[in-house]
C-alpha cells in the first residue's frame, strides 16, 4: 500500500508550550506511522511578522528541533529540516508569485484580520512578505508534491488558496502538482492556567518539557471554581480549569473526580495534587528525552542537516519539472 505524503511546518517564533504540543505536535507523532511525512521549521515564515529582530532565531530553531524530537518525531521515519536550508522553496515561491492574481491573496480572511490585530500592537506588517504568506505556504507544500496537509480550521482558507494556485499552474503549463487535501487535525484544546487560551503573551502557559517542579508550581496556580471558597462547598467542574486538564491527563478518573467535587468530597488542593502527579507521570518521557537532546546539540543539528539534504533531493526533482514546464531550462 502506497502511503500518502504529508507536509506541515511550524514557525520558530518562541518557546513551545503544552498547548502547542496538544494542538498539533501530538497529532504529527501519530501521523508519522500512517504517512510519509515531511516536517519543516519554517523560519522564513516567521519573518513575515517578526522581521525587525532576528537575534533569537537561531536558538528558537534549535529549541523547536529539540521539542519535535523529544515529543517523539522519528528522524528515521520523517524528513525534518529548516526551511531556509532548502533554497528551492524561495525559487518556487517566486515563480508562483508571477502567476497568482493579487486579489486572491487579498481576499484570504485572516489577512486583514491579522493585519489589523498586529497593527494595533504597533507592528507595521503591510509588506509583500506578509501578504504573500499563503503563496510561500503553497510552495512549501507542493514542492514535495504533498497530497495531504494537517491543519486547524483557521488554516482551511489558506489551503483552499493553495489548491487554486495548483489548478492555475497545472492549467497554464502542465499537470505537475496534486491538489493538497485537508486533514483536519483533531486537536486537544488546552486552556492556560487562568482559563483563557494558552499563550505566552498572556503569561498563562505551561512550558513544553517542563520539569516536575515546574508542573507542580503551574498546577497550583490554576483557576478553579470561583464560587468554591472552601472544601465544604460543592464545586462545579464545568467552570474549573483543573477539571479540563483532568479530562485530558486523568481521563479514566474524571467521572469519580467530577462526582467527588460536586459532593464536596474532594478539595481543590487535593485535586490539583492528583493532577500534577498525573501530568508528571504522563510527560516524564518527553521531559527526559528533552534533557538528553539539549545535552547533544551536535546530534540535533546533524538531524536537521541530514533532513535538509533529503529535502533538497526531492525539491530539486520537482523544480526540474517546473523549470521544464515553464520553459526556463
Number of spatially distinct domains: 2
State which percent range the strand residues make up. Answer: 5-15%
Looking at CATH, which topology of the largest domain would you report? Rossmann fold
Strand order, sheet with most strands: 1-2-3
Number of helices: 15
CATH superfamily caption of the largest domain: HUPs
Radius of gyration: 22 Å
Specify the oligomeric state. Answer: single chain
Mean pLDDT: 92
Structural class by sheet pairing and helices: mainly alpha
* Share of residues in helices: 40-55%
Total beta-strand segments: 5
Low-confidence stretches: none
Task: Give the secondary structure arrangement, pairings included.
Elements (H helix, E strand, L loop, with lengths): L4 E6 L7 H14 L4 E6 L1 H4 L10 H15 L6 E5 L5 H12 L2 H5 L2 H12 L7 H4 L1 H10 L5 E4 L4 H17 L8 E4 L27 H9 L20 H9 L4 H9 L5 H15 L1 H11 L2 H29 L4
Parallel strand pairs: 1-2, 2-3, 4-5
Helix pairs in contact: 3-14, 3-15, 4-8, 4-15, 8-9, 10-13, 11-13
Description:
This protein has 329 residues and is mainly alpha-helical. It has 2 domains: 215 residues, HUPs (Rossmann fold, 3-Layer(aba) Sandwich), CATH 3.40.50; 71 residues, Orthogonal Bundle (Tyrosyl-Transfer RNA Synthetase). The strands form 2 sheets. The protein has a 3-stranded parallel beta sheet. The protein has a two-stranded parallel sheet with strand order 4-5. The two termini are 35 Å apart.
In short:
The protein is mainly alpha-helical.
Which key terms come to mind for this protein?
single chain, 329 residues, mainly alpha, Rossmann fold, Tyrosyl-Transfer RNA Synthetase, 2 domains, 15 helices, 5 strands, 53% helix, elongated
